[in-house]
Amino acid sequence: MELRTQVKAESPRTLEQPGKMYVKGKYLFVNEIKKGIHIIDNGNPANPKFVTFINIPGNGDIAVRDNVLYADSFSDLVSIDITDPAAPKEVGRVKNVFKTGLFDGGGWSLNESVGSITDQNVEWVTETVTVNCEDNVPPMTWWGGIWMLADRVSFNSSSSASPQSSGGTSGQAGSMARFALDRNFLYAVSQSDLHLFKIDKPAQPADFATVNLGWGIETIFPYDNKLFIGSSTGMFIYDNTNPAEPKQLSNFQHGRACDPVVVHENIAYVTLRTGTACGGGQNQLDLVDVSNPAAPQLIKSYQMESPHGLSIDFPTLFLCEGEHGLKVFDVTDKFSVDRNQLAHFKDMHAYDVISLGKTLMLIGEDGFYQYDSSNPKDLKMLSKIPVGKAI
Which InterPro entries does the annotation name (predicted)? Predict the structure, then answer.
């Protein structure tokens, strides 16, 4: 099919509608919603340089193991050799694996030709349903066995540095990631399922297993041989001691709201927000005791404005507030987080954040920012890649 021939390297281009970001070594990978991935040389955070753009139709998520980049392309999973970041090339593909539920984390527009890669005959049937809470999304359309967005998705999501397990050198994703790497497996959550891909041969991922999770699944965060999976109604915790066979331990439930998760030691930090397809009336940060992962317990909830993504560099918590900017908290005292706000930076749109020690990466509707975060109370901008401007 024509779309399957379009994964290719192209000249660098400007950011237009940036989505998720992923970091590995000196390289930054930024998703251009439903179009592909920017590869950026970030060896000097004060002067990042576009290297190339990988055209990947329908792309929304990214993960990198060694020199192989994994990405979704509509209903397919593709593997791309990035040994030479200036000349990436497709080396593997698993076709028609994301068959049920929206996967991409981006969207399709009514003003553009809507497409999906499948080997099936299709017919159009329109139906309104409740959809992914990861983004502010409109009603969807059922098309040939795949839920497709019926309008442009709003930029509304988040990220946070997530630890990676052994089994090759992986990068760092964030709290809104739908991809996670652990040992010889790539995990991908769709709206309803956890897909396991075996990557012992990194360039040739193999569809290994599928675990049904229900509906409204949004994010996945691997931590300490566990998978913390955010959904529109709660947080699932899976034992991942055997990466080939995740076992559900518990489901921490809350009212209907968007739900990215990050974890440090025995505490999960969960943001809930309204104003999306999730519904509900909650704009808050929840701290959840996960010392017994089979029986998580709410520690305390803190009211926020419009919480999106978050990143924990203990004791500092960075929390995105969308159009309200970025808040920084000292969470040493888990019962007094609201009284220990270190800073509130309002001159940015904060969608996705990754903390890398003394460097903070943040992405929003207006572009990509990097800060020296040596002093969390006083972030110093190192560089900015604005939307619509080349570097």
Answer: LVIVD
